[in-house]
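hiii so my PI (J.) wants the whole complex modelled not just the main chain, which honestly fair. so below is everything: two entries, each one labled with what it is. i double checked the lines twice but i was tired so who knows lol
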Amino acid sequence: MAFDPFAILGLPRRFDLDAAAVQRAYLARAAMAHPDLATAGLDEVAEGSAGVADAAALNRAKAVLDDPEQRADALLTLLGGPTREADRSLPDGFLAQIMDIRERLDEAVASRDGAAAAELEAWAGRRRAAHVRAAAEMFAALPERTAPDALRAIRRELNAWRYIERMLEQVRDADRM
Amino acid sequence: MAYGPKIIDHYENPRNVGSFGTQAEVKQRKDVGVGLVGAPECGDVMQLQIKVDPATGRIEDAKFKCFGCGSAIASSSLATEWLKGKTLDEGLAIKNTEIVQELSLPPVKIHCSVLAEDAIKAAIADYKTKNGIPVDDHDHEHAHR
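here's the output for the full assembly
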């Protein structure tokens, strides 16, 4: 069975989840899963049951739902959409654009041009925000019976989003060094 | 787990980093083939360029740029080394599994070697297209995972 962070935390399968609701659901279940309190025995904690998942699964579910990109990816998979491995499509010209931006960032860092680097980082931040908005709209527009075309369009959106997150991850890692 | 000495060497001293000109310049150059690929699993992006000697049909030089993890950088660095001196057909014969073996890549990093093989195929296909050489279907096939 696929990992379902929404079911583990007892939350509806939707993209626009309230961070506070995720936190409340997590705390309520974490308290129940605590070994000092979970005296009811393992029978009621069986996987796939309405019982409480173990602490590791709860933590993993919360981490996925707290991150908009991972949440979108999990939701798309649960709705029957293609995985990243199955559908690698990207918007036209996207790879060339991201390559160009990454090269410019590299040059800015190498020449210690802080202003140029900050500008490119800000660009990535704006792209991330745009992807969050686009994903919210695309998930909200899904019909009851999810059309394959709509799911493929979301996959393409999320694939591009991954490159933006990767850029931001690497900028962050470089800052730490 | 620990990485092997070869992968660390290629990561710390990557060979043949760079390009034969800007995107616009290499687009015009018929002796240069460009392969631009990405890994949607992680968001890594890799560009590999080959410079072919028109007289011999051999790849005389190769360069790469990779924005990704150490394994992706090492895989593309190794690919550029292997490509030099090869014919296009010999270049197409490079398999990602050979890169995995040479660098002792762990299973979670196999997709990095796949990316390098895809970049080789894309660069050779680009060179062929620019020079009116028919591109075989298998040139576009994805590497084996």
